[in-house]
Amino acid sequence: MKSKKKQQFKTPEGYFDNFHERLMGKIVEDSDSSLNIIPKNDGFTVPQEYFETVGTVISKKVKDTKTKVIPLYAFRKYAYAAAALAAVFLFVWGITFRSEPSFNDLAAAEIDSYFEESELNLTSYELAEVIALEDIELKDMVDTPYEEENILEYLDETVDALEDLNIDYDELE
Amino acid sequence: MVAEETLVNDLKHKDSQARAFEVLVNTYKERLYWHIRRIVLNHDDADDILQNTFIKVYKNIDGFKGDSKLYSWMYRIATNESLTFLKQQSKKRGISNEELRQDLVENLQSDVYFEGDDIQLKLQEALATLPEKQKLVFNMKYFQEMKYEEISEILETSVGGLKASYHLAVKKIETYLKAD
Questions:
Q1: Residue B123, Cβ neighbours under 10 Å: how many?
Q2: Predicted ipTM?
Q3: Phi and psi at residue A53, in whole multiples of 5°?
Q4: What is the pLDDT of residues B14-41, one digit of tens each?
Q5: How far is B3 from chain A (nearest CA, A)?
Q6: Does A147 touch chain B (CB under 8 A)?
Q7: pTM of the complete model beyond 0.90
C-alpha cells in the first residue's frame, strides 16, 4: 500500500535535472525586474580634468617617499666615526653627570609643538580619562581671554531678556 | 594593454619601475577611484585614499607573490583603506559606523561633486542601510559591472554567496525606493 501512495505524485520528466541552474535563473530574473526602478547612474561627479592630473600627483608623491629613504651604506664610514665619537662622549658624560633628565628639562615650546603637529586622534572620552576636570580652567579652552566687557557684550547680543538668565538677584547683592 | 605578468616584473626592477608604475596608475586609477568613491562618497576623501592605495601598492610590490591577480590585490588594498578610513572617522567623531554613513549621505545634498536627483539620493540612503558586504557587492556588480568571479577573488567569497548577497541587496533597495 505504502509503495502505491508514493507513486501518487509524479514530476515532469527531467524535473530535477538542472534544478539549481533553473532556480538561479529565476533569482536573476526576479532581481532583474527589481533593477528597473534602480537608477543606472549614481550622480557622482569629479572635478574637471581630475583623471588627467591625478596620475602626475601620485607619481610625484611616490617620488617624494622614495627620496626620503637615504641608503645608510653611502654614509657608512661617517657613521662609524660618529658612533665612535658618540660612544666616547656618552662614556665621559655618564661619568661626570649622573643625574637623570627631568620632565622640566623639556622646553615647553617643544612639547607644545609636538601636540600641535601630532595627530593624537583622541576622542573627548579618552581625553576625559587622562585629564581631571579640576585641572582644567575655562581659559584653557578659549583662544581669546574673556574680560567682563566681552561677557557683557556677548550677553547683550545674544540674550533677549535678562530674565532668561534666571539669575537670583538677591544672591548677587 | 601590457600583460599583467610583465607589468609586475617591470614594477619589481629598478630600471623599469618608474615607467611601469605610470602604466599601472593610468590603467587602474579610474576604476579604483570609483570603487573607493562609492564607499566613502566624498571626492576629497576618495582622492586621498586613491593616492594612499597606489603608494601602498608601490611600497609593497616586492611582497606581491602573484597568488591572485594584480588588480584583485589592488582592489583589496583600496577596499581595506576605504573601510579603515571610515572606521577612523567614526572613532574620531565619537559616533557609530551607521551614524557616520547617514551623515555622509546627508552631506551629499551640499556636495558640489554630487549631481544626483531625489531618486539617486534615495538610492544612497538605501545603500547606507545595507550591511557592508551587500553594499560592496551591489556597487561592484551594478555600477562597476564586474563579473561574480572577479568580485569573488577580491572579496574572497564564493560566487554563490555573492549572488545571494546581490539578490538581497537589490530586494532591500527596491523596497526602500518603493516606500512612501
A1: 24
A2: 0.87
A3: -105, -25
A4: 889 889 999 999 999 999 999 999 999 9
A5: 20
A6: no
A7: no
